[in-house]
Amino acid sequence: MAIVKTKTPIPEQPVEERIKNFDEVALGYTEEQALIEASRCLQCKDAPCVKGCPVNIDIPGFIRLIKEKKYDEAIKKIKESNNLPATTGRVCPQETQCEALCTLKKVGEPVAIGRLERFVADYELNKGYEIPPIVKKYDKKVAVVGSGPAGLTVAGDLARMGIKVSIFEAFHEPGGVLIYGIPEFRLPKRIVRAEVEYIKSLGVEIFTNVVVGRSVTIDELLKEYDAVFIGTGAGAPQFLNIPGENLIGIYSANEFLTRVNLMKAYKFPEYDTPIKIGKIVGVIGGGNVAMDAARTALRLGAKEVHILYRRTEEEMPARYEEIVHAKEEGIIFNFLVSPVKFVGDEKGHLIGIELQRMTLGEPDSSGRRRPIPIEGSNFVFPIDMAIVAIGTVPNPLISMTTPGLSVNKNGTILIDKETGKTSKDRVLAGGDVASGSATVINAMGAGKIAAKSIFKLLTEE
């Protein structure tokens, strides 16, 4: 059979409609489309795609089952490795991970692995999920701090191994960055809530509004639990540290997206979370968070939204798909510019941003070409709202209140990457709190490593 070189397109909301709402942009494959796409998989014996998956999903295995219309078996195959498939099927950067290694890429486009994962995950959500049997239960308890992708993965894996798990979440709703950081149009909250319910169905209990490090310390948890996993992510924003950063009209992307996503500012006044949107918005940064913030500002009524990025599109860390969607929706990209200072009026309101033009030099430690300022190229760009999306670091609360827990200069917890163990006995960590800001699937991969390590620690001692 001839090889089909291109992916089966995924249906999407028309641009002119989606910029007026927060509904999901990509609508998902129909059964017919999924079967066509699954038939493209070559079922490679060495399965290079699996090597690109941080949680080692048997990708050819689940795609073969889709091709055979065995959807129940397909989702079971995925869940052998992944507790959150409806989420990862939507937000994973497959193009740089599993799909990047797909054999078909040598002659055309790779198999749409993420879209197929989403298809069977949504199939299961619609029909109701099946709770796997737990063969043996152990008289051991583990506390998981944080209910984001790393925490949910550790909790789900340990529960399936027969360990009792309690999750402690600082916010009023579990899900971590999946709830507060990713907009509804990219990851609907009903999907996150459904996958959290699946984790709870395994026997995991979740306590919300518990700020570990303030309400209870790690040492106090260790008195009650046999081990503690810290998966609190990187929720503290980084700032530019340039003049004028305290002017009215400047948000961190964290605050902006949390107010809109978790606190539903986009439904004001139905929800009591006001948010002021400028007419001309400048978003500083080039990652997925910058794309999310820009597209959110546009939907909330901004007339113009500009991405301000100091390198070129080639170096942008955002997913290609998110960049394409942003362009389609009218986001304006301004490359090779870097903020020097914010400009305000006499009342302290933002009215502009002074930018300096850049050129690119040799690659730096990130592998991307280094931006170099061009002397005398400064100019003022008129904006009345700015969103700073240049990365995040861990909140220091836990490291400040946990004696013996080692962190680096950025506040990330130092761990053994092979086990997830920290410098403190019976305390493990993983995800963004240990790696710095990364992807959902990388955090889940770290969670799986820690879960295996904790199980071994508690059952072989």
UniProtKB/TrEMBL annotation:
Domain 4Fe-4S ferredoxin-type span(s) in chain numbering: 32-62
Pfam family, one: Fer4_20
Natural source organism: Dictyoglomus thermophilum (strain ATCC 35947 / DSM 3960 / H-6-12)
GO molecular function, one term: iron-sulfur cluster binding
Keyword Oxidoreductase: yes
Entry protein name: Glutamate synthase (NADPH), homotetrameric
Ranges annotated as spanning the membrane: none
Lineage: Bacteria, Pseudomonadati, Dictyoglomota, Dictyoglomia, Dictyoglomales
The entry's keywords: Oxidoreductase
EC number: 1.4.1.13
